[in-house]
Design brief:
single chain; alpha/beta; six-stranded mixed β-sheet; two-stranded antiparallel ribbon; 8 strands; 60% helix; globular
Length: 751
């Protein structure tokens, strides 16, 4: 009876009727039975070869290999291939020709016509991964890149001067001079040659007796010396940057690192300079901390009460205590040593700029011991955020004005003679950029917020938090509103508008709608299930009077009642492109679900998803037949054996496609891999409910990812460039050699 109900539910799904969202104890396509496969002569010969290869017996491996080759020749003839022989030859070569001797065997194996495509690709990659082959490839790329830069330095000015040939001598000379300066300023050992050095060193360590090592040893020593020079120069440059920025300990560290790689007078001088500055700072610190109790003025009870009131933030008590403790001034009109600290405490506790005038006056005094403390107090952004805001705004306005007026002329030249030479070479084009000042002024309307705006916003928010009724609260709130609107941060805009003295109810309603939409978008983008549910619930509670808030509430309820521990989805496009996963070896979907005929039932583009445990969610096309309509869901429980076989098939397909197609890269996903491993071991029923273990992954087809045609890189090393300039109204076209791309591991060799 139960089986009949299951089949009825499946038939209902195939007919595009709304399936009942219930869990049924049945596979997707009925029980599949596989007939036992009886081993033949080739299978037995392959098994003997596998045993001999695992045992490492060369004689038995050779005999088993010959037996398999003879068995295929006798059973299938010369024109029919089972595909076993290439794998057998590779397994035999692993024992008979280990190490580098196997490279020649692999090259000979590639000459065969009956190689499996995945095996051929793997052998080609193994051959290309040889350290000597990689080193030769990187050397060729380095030399080609040098030639390409020289070629482009000539072709670019020639092409741009077609409309104005009189400029050719200048543009060509400028381009060649700039290329010469860049070459002279390059690292002693460029990135690709660093890789070459590592490949050669790795080869020498693995094969010290190889004949190539003796030839490579002098080149390895030369490249290693250039690498030490490169590291020393890089550390020295960082030391100079750190010293200019006032980071003296970092400057000392980098200078010492440069000296470890190579002795240099410049690095030694910079190290000594950094040490002198550190010694001076330490001396000043020791002098500041070397305060003796006998030097302190004898404070009485009133002064102590004032100091205690300042420390706990009781301003009224501080003023009262200060008035009681204040001593008369001396004949010259200056405050006494006992009253000055109390004045300082009172002024520093005011905080707001309108109340800190005594602190400003104290900071301007010459020779006063409290002037330095008053200046430091005024420059503290935590105590006086309005001053930090004005400083940040002033610096940003100055940077913007310089950029609008001077453009690239604001760039500072690099250090050294080469930096000055490069700046002088670039000076004529920079001067031409002055003509583009109106265009830069127009760009201000679309310019994104800069780090200077962000710093000013931080100080403005701190001021409003400390002094919501302060003197400058209105102007800072208005600037913050414009800043957040420009960023489209509607949550921040709403928060500021609600804190205004007299907010406009109509404007608040519009801002709440926008803030709710923003919060809903952020919540839905959260990958973790628990955080997503919490964010949706928070948006629903805070903005229950908005449409987006009500939608967030519905989504939060769906997360609570319909959420699944995992969601590993296989789209319809992926299942169509991989019939081995959709077929009997995988989900065993009915062919009617993938025949693109909605009349007999069709799979929705969402496809099938593993939702945790052994449950699978089948998304069927709605009765309307429209892909954009919500799918009708059917929930099915897979047998443990089928789930284990399905996961194994998916993994095998992934690895095979990664070998055959560069666009099918293996993407790391630890949560998904953990779910698959539990399924392979038969532990799928014990679901890991921790939010951090949630697996969310989607397998999509190639056409779904790339459209009808995938973009491909041109095989030609040259491209045609059309380039113009508004400064001199020039237009030209020229060929340019494309520089070779760096290998994926190039980032490991940059520093």
């Amino acid at each position: 009876m139960r089986a009949a109900l299951t089949l009825a539910a499946l038939a209902l799904a195939l007919g595009c009727q709304g399936p009942a969202a219930t869990l049924v104890e049945a596979p997707l396509g009925g029980k599949v039975r596989f007939a036992p496969i009886l081993p033949d002569t080739l299978d037995r010969a392959a098994a003997e070869l596998a045993k001999a290869a695992l045992a490492g017996d060369a004689a038995k491996v050779e005999a088993a290999r010959d037996a398999l080759v003879n068995a295929e020749r006798s059973e299938r003839g010369e024109d029919d291939s089972s595909g076993l022989v290439p794998f057998a030859l590779e397994a035999a070569d692993a024992v008979l020709a280990p190490g580098r001797a196997g490279l020649a065997s692999g090259e000979a194996l590639l000459e065969r016509d009956d190689l499996d495509p995945a095996l051929r690709e793997r052998l080609e990659r193994e051959g290309a991964a040889d350290p000597l082959v990689l080193a030769q490839q990187r050397l060729f790329e380095a030399r080609y890149a040098s030639f390409a830069r020289l070629f482009n330095a000539v072709s670019a000015p020639v092409g741009r001067s077609l409309l104005n040939p009189l400029q050719l001598p200048y543009t060509l000379g400028y381009s060649l001079a700039r290329a010469a300066v860049d070459t002279a300023d390059a690292d002693p050992l460029d990135l690709r040659r660093r890789q070459v050095l590592v490949y050669w060193q790795d080869f020498a360590l693995r094969h010290p007796d190889a004949p190539e090592v003796a030839e490579l040893s002098p080149r390895i020593e030369r490249y290693a010396d250039q690498w030490e020079r490169t590291r020393a120069d890089a550390a020295l440059e960082r030391a100079r940057d750190a010293l200019d920025a006032g980071r003296v300990p970092a400057a000392l560290l980098y200078a010492q690192r440069s000296l470890r790689h190579r002795e240099s007078g410049s690095a030694a001088e910079l190290r000594d300079a950094a040490r002198q500055e550190l010694d001076a700072e330490q001396h000043a610190r020791d002098r500041s901390l070397g305060f003796e109790a006998s030097q302190a003025p004898p404070f009485g009870a009133a002064e102590r009460a004032a100091i205690l009131a300042a420390l706990v933030g009781e301003r009224d008590d501080l003023v009262a205590a200060r008035v009681q403790a204040e001593l008369p001034t001396d004949p010259e009109g200056e405050e006494s040593a006992r009253a000055a600290p109390l004045r300082f405490l009172e002024a520093s506790s005011a905080g707001d700029s309108a109340l800190s005038e005594p602190l400003e006056a104290l900071a301007e005094q010459k020779g006063s011991p409290l002037a330095r403390h008053a200046a430091a107090e005024l420059s503290d952004p935590l105590r006086h955020p309005e001053r930090a805001y004005h400083r940040a705004r002033s610096a940003e306005r100055w940077r913007t004005a310089r950029w609008v007026v001077f453009g690239p002329l604001t760039a500072r030249p690099d250090r050294g003679g080469l930096g000055a030479t490069r700046y002088l070479l670039d000076l004529p084009p920079r001067l031409q950029s002055l003509l583009l000042m109106p265009i830069r002024a127009l760009e201000l309307a679309w310019r994104k917020p800069t780090p200077g705006h962000a710093r000013a916003a931080v100080h403005a928010r701190r001021y409003l938090a400390l002094y919501p009724e302060g003197v400058e609260a209105g102007s800072l709130r208005g600037w913050l509103l414009r800043h957040e609107k420009h960023r489209k941060n509607w949550m921040g805009v709403l928060r500021l508008a609600e804190g205004a003295p007299d907010p406009d109810p109509e404007e608040l309603g519009e801002l709440r709608e926008r803030a709710a939409e923003q919060g809903l978008a952020v919540a839905r983008a959260e990958p973790r299930r628990d955080l997503r549910a919490a964010l949706l619930a928070d948006v629903g509670r805070r903005f229950r009077d908005t449409e987006a808030g009500r939608e967030a509430g519905r989504a939060a309820r769906e997360e609570a009642f319909e959420g699944t521990p995992h969601e590993i989805r296989f789209s319809r496009g992926f299942l169509v492109e991989n019939p081995e996963i959709a077929g009997p070896q995988g989900f065993d979907l009915s062919p009617a679900l993938l025949d693109e005929d909605p009349r007999n039932g069709e799979l929705h583009p969402d496809g099938v998803a593993l939702t945790g445990g052994r449950e699978a969610e089948v998304s069927l096309l709605a009765a309307s037949g429209d892909d954009d309509d919500p799918a009708e869901k059917l929930y099915v429980k897979l047998p443990a054996e089928r789930l284990s076989r399905l996961v194994a098939r998916v993994e095998e397909t992934r690895f095979r496609k990664a070998l055959l197609d560069r666009d099918e890269a293996l993407v790391a996903d630890p949560q998904r891999d953990a779910v698959f491993e539990r399924a392979r071991l038969g532990l799928a029923d014990s679901v890991d409910m921790r939010p951090g273990a949630e697996a969310r992954h989607t397998y999509r087809g190639v056409r779904e990812r790339y459209g009808m045609v995938r973009a491909r890189d041109s095989i030609l090393p040259i491209e045609l460039v059309v380039q113009g300039s508004l400064a001199d109204l020039s237009l030209g076209a020229f060929p340019r050699l494309v520089l070779p791309r760096h290998s994926p591991d190039a980032e490991l060799y940059r520093d």
